[in-house]
Write a structure and sequence with these properties.
FAD/NAD(P)-binding domain; FAD/NAD-binding_dom; alpha/beta; NAD(P)-dependent oxidoreductase
Length: 480
């Protein structure tokens, strides 16, 4: 009987792919770690305990078959590992890069609980599919027999693109409409290259286009066509726009030049990475070079902003967050990366006002303390009287999260039902909105969430749309 290739966690230490040094990686927008060599990936996969109840899979929104493809990797069966990984996710190498594994699969790894350090699931997932691309194992999309029906998808982010792939394979004509000039949504324009290099996204987009999915770029619903016009053109519609309305701050001076939105800052930076002309960057407005930068917020978007500012050559970068480190919503790994790169975190601090009229010159800050728990159970921050101080700032970036845009108004569709938060109201049994044949998925239903949940929603809504379209086709045949 052959030796068990697994259960090596007692002898083999947890090792992540080696990160480039902080000074070196702060000079460019490349990903900060190189991929594993094959022996290292096999050894790290072999640390999996193959537990009877795989909490890693349970806590993965996609319920990926993690222990199974770890075992295949440990056994050197990489192509099979890729095929199994790909069976539950349309973008495994992207999830491997940007999922907060410390809060999901790796954070719930059994050997993490035992004190041996979690299996490096995300890094192995990235390695498997990157290898598949290099080896030519990633097969083109093969559309099923034509069903004579078409769907329109509004939004080319992860939920929309996942749905497009599943529906094209099922034999539908698929058209995707997106306001940007490149598909990918936040994968393309919101997430910096040091977390997700853009060729990784573009090769996925190119594969979808090669499979016959038509992506209409620079197409804004409401401007180029009303929602009702698209409903008349297609047999079903999916709204997967995400949430893009930035949350604001009510404070004196917030309108001063140099106080900018996080997404404007990140989009400008990513466009420069593509080689685009970006006047707002070139004139210095959205460029941190040589500036004292203050980022307000504690989520992953704030981490993207501080680390982007470092790479643009900021003079100093500070992050203000109103709670402490233990209560911040962003990934602790990202905080550690930012600190290594020279970012200073100013915990338990909130802006009270912004100095400057022609140009922001500073932020007046109040120290905070954690009081009684709020509605979510987290201790609510409250101002600590008499503790005010000032930070110099030439550029202030607001990274306070995102809400839904007013889609009924934007789309010219007053009957499109929304919740009190502005997200789309759906029947959760069918994922259908208040309009017949119009479905919704991703952040526009959930609120700002994770890419992996958007992909999961894309997978789920595909099943619901398929069922709806089969019933619609049957009714049409019966009427004929």
């Amino acid at each position: 009987m052959a030796d068990n290739p697994m259960l090596k966690f007692v002898d083999a230490a947890q090792v992540y792919p080696e990160k480039r040094s902080a000074p070196l990686r702060a000079e460019d927008f490349r990903e900060i770690a190189e991929k594993y060599a094959v022996p290292n990936a096999e050894e790290q996969s072999a640390r999996c305990s193959q537990c009877g109840v795989p909490y890693c899979s349970v806590h993965c929104p996609l319920h990926n078959h993690i222990p199974d493809w770890l075992r295949l990797t440990a056994e050197g069966r990489l192509r099979e590992a890729y095929e199994l990984s790909n069976s539950t996710s349309t973008m495994p190498e992207i999830c491997g890069r940007i999922c907060p594994q410390d809060r999901l699969c790796e954070g719930n790894c059994v050997i993490e609980f035992s004190g041996h350090g979690a299996v490096t699931i995300g890094s192995v997932e990235k390695f498997i599919t990157d290898t598949a691309w290099e080896e030519g194992w990633v097969e083109p999309i093969v559309p099923g027999p034509s069903r004579g029906q078409s769907i329109g998808i509004i939004g080319a982010g992860p939920a929309g693109l996942a749905t497009a792939e599943y529906m094209r394979v099922a034999g539908y004509d698929v058209h995707v409409y997106d306001r940007h000039d490149r598909a990918g949504g936040l994968l393309t324009y919101g997430i910096p290259g040091f977390k997700l290099e853009k060729h990784v996204v573009m090769r996925r987009v190119d594969r979808l286009k090669a499979g016959g999915i038509v992506i209409h770029e620079n197409f804004e619903v409401g401007r180029d066509a009303k929602l009702d016009e698209l409903r008349a053109k297609h047999d079903a519609i999916l709204i997967a726009t995400g949430v893009y309305k930035a949350r604001g701050i009510k404070a004196p001076g917030v309108g001063a030049p140099g106080v900018v939105e996080s997404l404007d800052f990140l989009i400008a930076s990513n466009r420069k990475g593509f080689g685009d002309a970006v006047p707002e960057f070139d004139d210095g407005g959205l460029n941190a070079a040589g500036k004292n930068v203050v980022v307000i917020g504690g989520g992953d978007t704030a981490m993207d902003c501080v680390r982007t500012a470092v790479r643009q050559g900021a003079k100093s970068v500070k992050c203000l967050y109103r709670r402490d480190r233990a209560n911040m919503p962003g990934s602790q790994r990202e905080v550690a990366n930012a600190e290594e790169e020279g970012v200073e975190f100013v915990w338990l601090s909130a802006p009270e006002a912004f100095d400057g009229t022609e140009q922001v010159a500073g932020v007046r800050v109040a120290k905070m303390r954690l009081g009684t728990p709020d509605a979510t159970g987290r201790r609510a921050p409250e101002a600590d009287p008499g503790s005010e101080f000032r930070l110099e700032a030439d550029l202030v970036i607001k990274a306070l999260g995102f809400d839904a845009e007013d889609l009924p108004k934007m789309f010219g569709s007053a009957d499109l039902g929304v919740t009190r938060w502005g997200t789309l109201r759906v029947d959760h049994k069918t994922m259908q909105t208040s309009l017949d044949g119009v479905f919704a998925a991703g952040d526009i239903v959930r609120g700002a969430s994770l890419v992996v949940w958007a992909i999961r929603d894309g997978r789920d809504v595909s099943d619901h749309m398929h069922r709806y379209l089969k019933q619609k086709a049957a009714a049409t045949r019966k009427a004929a």
